[in-house]
Request: fold
Amino acid sequence: MNQLLEAFAWISEPSNWTGPSGILARSGEHLGYTLLTLLIAAAIAVPIGWWVGHTGRGRGLTVALSGAARALPTLGLVTLMGLLLGIGLIAPLTAFVVLAIPSVLAGAYAGFEAIDRGVVNAARAQGFTESQILWRIEAPLGLPLLIGGLRSAALQVVATATLAAYVGAGGLGRYLFLGLKTQDYAMMLGSSLIVVALAILLELAFSAAAWLSVPTGVKVARRGAAA
Amino acid sequence: MNWVIENIPLIADRTWAHLATSIPAIILALLISIPLGWVAHRFRPVKGTLLGAAGLMYAIPSLPLFIVLPILIGTGVRDVVNVVIALTLYEIALLVRSVADGLDSVPADARNAALALGYPPLRRFFAVDLPLAGPVILAGLRVVAVSTLSLCTVGAVLGIPSLGLLFTDGFQRGILAQVVTGIVMTVVLALLADRLLVLAGRLVLPWTRPIGTGERPRARRRPSSGRLGISQAPEVRA
Reply:
């Protein structure tokens, strides 16, 4: 428990928070990597996932891909990219995007697939064009599951972002590996606790977003069904 | 390829360490999740709390957990026990839901029939409830086994032996073949474990064998939500 106290002492030391390698800057980098990864992964995976969900084509491939991705070791991918692309940010970022894509893809596609076909057909019968169906029916109704997919990806990346420091990038992992090298257990433990707190905050934020993203009509219908 | 041939003993050694870490964690998690899942299934109010806690547990990144655990249980940072316990905790977080959902999916008729036949509670659980919940639990176990075998590698950055040491060592010495071998071996082990679990499922739960269509019967209550396990839990850990 002494070590825990030392770790908290490390966290609460104001001079550890400021400066270019302070906790604030490192946390910023950490979250920055996570958000950047999510943006890139979403830009790639959401259109593909929506296309798969809307047309029903390529479904088997999507399922197989997200299944196989589960088996891919993150540390392996990070070090592989580190060797191929060199030290720096590009290598870990590429690895993170590769790791994030399957979750986002699955969320985008599953969101569409979960929609009652009757709703889509009713819209079509009323004369909605395909793009109207996509944007006004499928996208809003599929949003909660898409956010679920983004959440899995975000949690995974915020955890993996610790490994970015292993291949020479920044983030909170810096403290972890520095502490490991210099046997500074307080720093290791303190930074670990900050990463854990960051991940839990992110998880809570996404839970709130997932709840908010359910369209009002659906919430009302659910409440009606439950009553 | 040369690197692989010259280093077969090393690869075998790492593979063994890898399995020796992940398999106990998987078995331990299954043994703990069954009673916990039963509690969640039996006592409604507990279910929300238990699954909420499991969700938060699952959100904790693995590498920091490997570092925090030794403080809580008094082991060394490089102790393999930390990894086994951390992996077990993650697996429980996933499996409790599968067990609870599986038990929820057991038809009341089957349960009542066993009751009418005079099965004592424990026998009813092991002879009726658990086998009928089997397919859902098995689906959860497959996810758990695959992600555990892949997650196990992260301990390598702390020097804990597993196939992950091939990544760290290969990276530090700049041997691409070593890193690639590690990735391939990890993926192969994960897929192998997945296949083995499917086969074991067919042996233990013969009634789930697909008839004709090749589509496995689904025991989910709401097929529309979380077909890929998205709404239930994150798919991959890091």
User: Anything to note?
Assistant: Residues 112 and 139 of chain A are 7 Å apart (CA to CA). Chain A touches chain B through 63 residues (CB under 8 Å). Chain A has ten helices and no strands.
